[in-house]
Amino acid sequence: VALHKQKAVTTQIEAADEAAIQLLLAAQISASDNASIIYTAAAIEALSCAATATAKLKDFLTKATNAVANGGKIAGHILELMNLLRLMSAGGTTGTCIRGTSDNAPKKMKNVQALGCPPDILEENGDDIQLEPAEVTASGFAKFKGNSGKGAGDIAKCHLLATNVGGDSAGHLWQTQTPGPQTVLLGLMTLTPHSTPAQTDNKFANLQQIASKFRAHDASEATGKLYNVLVAPQTEDIRGCGDTSQAVIKHVIKQGKVKGLIPAVRKNAKLTAPGTKADYGAEDMQKSVAGQDSEQEKKNLR
C-alpha cells in the first residue's frame, strides 16, 4: 500500500514538472504578450503543484516508514513465536503446543509458512492499493474476536504454560505458580500459565471494534497505536493536481488560480491600472487568449 501511494505521488510530481516545462515553452514561443503571460502564470501554478506534492511525499514517507517498520516488527514477533512452537512440537503427539494438519503433531508443517505466516524474505510488491480487508477494517482487526486459542482436549498438552505447585522450580519455565494472563505479541494475545492444566489458557484479544473510520478509539495502548500506524498509509490523502502533464494544466486553469496570478503580477509591476473590475485586466486577457468564454480552458491548453 505504501509503495503504491509513493509511486502515485512521485508520478504527480513528475507530471507537474513536465506541465511547467510545457507551459514555459509555450510562453516563450507565443506571438501574443497576453498569451505569454497566461502561460507563464499557469507554469508558476504547475510548479506550485509540484512543490505541494513534494511536501506531501515527505510527510507520507515518514508515515509509510513507520508502518513498514512496525508491521515488520509485529509480523516478526508472530512468526518467531509460531516457528518456536512448531519446532518444539515436531514429532510429538502428547506434549504439543500447536496443532498439526492431521493430528496433534505438526508433522507436515515443514516451515512456518504452512501456518499462514509470510515468507521469511518478502519480495517487492507495489500492486496493493489497500490493506487486506479480511484482516484490517475501518473498525479494527477483523479476525481478533477475543476467542480462546486452546483446542478442545488440549488442556494438558502444552508444557510451555505449565507451572509448578509452589512456583519456583528448575523443571518449569514459569517460576510463579499463578502469574495470571500475560500479554504477548504487543497485546494481540494473552497466555495464562497455571499449575493445573485445565486452568491454562491462550486467548486472542478482542480487537474487532477498537476503531472508527480507521482511527483507534484509544491510541495510548499498544494495539491502538499499532492499528493507527498500520492504517496510516492507506488513509493518507494523496490527491494532487493530476498524474499527467495535461491533467495538471487542466487543473490549474479550471481552479482559476491562473487568473488570480495575473493581477498579482501586474499590480506588483505597476504597469497596468486596476480597471473597473480591479483585476488588472486578467479577465480581458484570458478572453483575448481563449477567444471564447466557454472555450477558455480548451483554448488556453493549445
UniProtKB/TrEMBL annotation:
Query: Where in this protein does the record put region Disordered?
Result: 274-302
Is Thylakoid included in the keywords of this UniProt record? no
InterPro entries hit by this protein: Trypano_VSG_A_N_dom (IPR001812)
Assigned keywords, A-Z: Cell membrane, Glycoprotein, GPI-anchor, Lipoprotein, Membrane
Compartments in which it is found: Cell membrane
- Give yes or no: UniProt keyword Calcium: no
What name does the UniProt record give this protein?
Variant surface glycoprotein 1125.2878
The organism's taxonomic lineage, starting at the top: Eukaryota, Discoba, Euglenozoa, Kinetoplastea, Metakinetoplastina
